[in-house]
Amino acid sequence: MALVTTKEMFNKAFEGKYAIGAFNINNMEIIQAITRAASRLKSPVILQVSKSALKYAGPEYLKRMVDAAIAETGIDIALHLDHGPDLETVKEVIDAGFTSVMFDGSHYDYEINVAKTKEVVDYAHARGVVVEAELGKLAGVEDDVKVDAADATYTDPDQAVDFVKRTGVDSLAIAIGTSHGAYKFKGEAKLDFDRLATITEKLEAAGIHNFPIVLHGASSVDPVSVETCNKYGGKIEGAAGVPNEMLRKAASMAVCKINMDTDIRLAMTAAIREVFGEQPSEFDPRKYLGVARERIEKLVEDKIKNVLGSANSL
Fold this sequence. Notes:
By secondary structure, the chain is an alpha/beta fold. The chain has helices at residues 7-16, 28-40, 51-57, 59-73, 87-96, 110-125, 157-167, 193-205, 223-231, 244-251, 262-278, 285-308, and strands at residues 20-24, 45-49, 77-84, 100-103, 130-135, 139-142, 145-147, 171-174, 179-180, 213-215, 255-260. It has one domain: Aldolase class I (TIM Barrel, Alpha-Beta Barrel). The protein is globular, with a radius of gyration of 19 Å.
């Protein structure tokens, strides 16, 4: 068994009206939790790595741990660069064996985004690697990605068609109301499903069929995890995520990849804080990291069954 690209994953997801979970990884316990949950439910999965995670763990360490997960589970796993800032980083991860990359040029002017994305596509496709890009700007903070709410912009449907045609990207992350981080909404949560439908319709009309759309910033921000963090000394107040039913609706449309990072972080932090709070004498990392791994595994199982709809798709 070896890493796969997202091509076949997305084809099946589009036809089956479900989405593949893209979970950010930073260490062994997170990788084990995600892949064991996916294996148990017979679901493919995307493990994604931010620029900050590359700095923290290194591409070689991450790649070899993912290889170990493939050997253990035998499921379809794609290893993906999340929010790649430049061609240099793209080259680094492709050399390390990643099968999918995202180049995020959404902060550039449109024509510059097109040109830089096309450069990444040409390099990656020549090496059998698929490319995701972003059009529109999501608000919020995730590692090195920081966009003020005032600067957030929704994706223009006509521009999306032009972008896909000119760049040749394999999937497109769009902005329809989600945001990065734990503080996604003030008041009622809203996603622009009409815009999502229009983008898909216009792509189809342009002869671009079954094109996979990606949702970033799509963590639900589990209130139990937030409450647990705060109970044991945390300060996460006013956090609000995307309701599960909204994500499930998006997955039943053209959204084939849903990114979740904050939920993983919250589950892990809540588990560790609870151990320290209830057992202050504990200092064995296996005792609290093991509990965190179990908490993440349960979280991913719930996402696959109740949000993504990807169970039993292998």
